[in-house]
Amino acid sequence: MNLEKGGTKAVVETASTEISELQRLSASLAGRAPHEILARAVERFPRITFATGFGVEGCALIDVIARHNLRIHLFTLDTGLLFPETMSLWRRLEERYKVTIRAVRSERSVSEQATQFGDRLWERAPDLCCGMRKVAPLKNELAHFDAWVSAIRRDQTGERSSASVVEWDAKFALVKVSPLASWSSADVWSYVRSNDVPFNPLHERGYPSIGCMPCTSPVFPGEDPRAGRWRGLERKECGIHTRFERPQLPSSRKERPGNVRVG
What we know:
Layout: H1 8-29, H2 34-44, E1 48-51, H3 56-67, E2 73-77, H4 84-97, E3 102-104, H5 110-117, H6 121-124, H7 126-142, E4 147-149, E5 166-169, E6 174-177, H8 185-194
Parallel strand pairs: 1-2, 1-4, 2-3, 4-6
Antiparallel strand pairs: 5-6
Helix pairs in contact: 3-8
C-alpha cells in the first residue's frame, strides 16, 4: 500500500480510502477457506510473508501454503529459547514440505542479553525480553514486505477477538492477513488430523500454546488454553498482536535485498 504524495490532508484521505478497501476485501473473504483467502492475498499483495511460531495453527497454514503452492515467504522468530521439540518440528516441516523457514533473530544472543541486562531477564522484565527477542526482530523483518500472514484465531484471547481476515496492522505498518480468524481449536485439529500435518508433540503433553521454553508451562484441566504462557503474570501476549490506540498511516515498504525463498 503506497500513499500518494501531497499534504497531510491528502495523505490522510488516501490512507482512509486504502483502509476502506481492506475492509471490503476482508468482508468479501469472510467464510472462505484458508487457501482461498491466502491465494487472494498473494494476488493482491505479492510481497507477502508468514511468520510462524510453530503452533498447531501455524503448522496447518504451512500445509495450506505448500499444498496449494502459494508464493509466500516463510520465517520464524528464533529467540534462542525455543523448546528442543520446536526446533525438531522446524526441521521436520522443512523436510516434509520442501520449504525453507528462515530464522530471524534478535541483535543480541541470549548470553549477550544476560551480560547487558542480567541473567533470566524474562523473569524480571518479560516485556523488555519479548520486545528485544520477538517484537523488534519481527518489525525489522516485516519492513521488507507489504503484507504478513498470521495464524491467530479470534477465540484465543480478548486482544484477538476483533481480528479481521484482512486488516491494516498499525503496530507494524503493513497489511495483516488472518485466514484462521474464524476457526475454532477443533477446526484446526480436524484439519491437522485429516491431512496428517506434523505438529509439536508438546501439544499432547499439556501445552496447548507453546512459546519460549522458560515462559511456557503445562496447562491443567479447566484452565484457559493460554494459562501456561507467562504463568503468574498478568499477560497473555508477547506484544506482537497487541494494537496501538492511534493507528499509524500506511507507508511505502523497503525492498528486501536479493531473492526470497518461498514455500
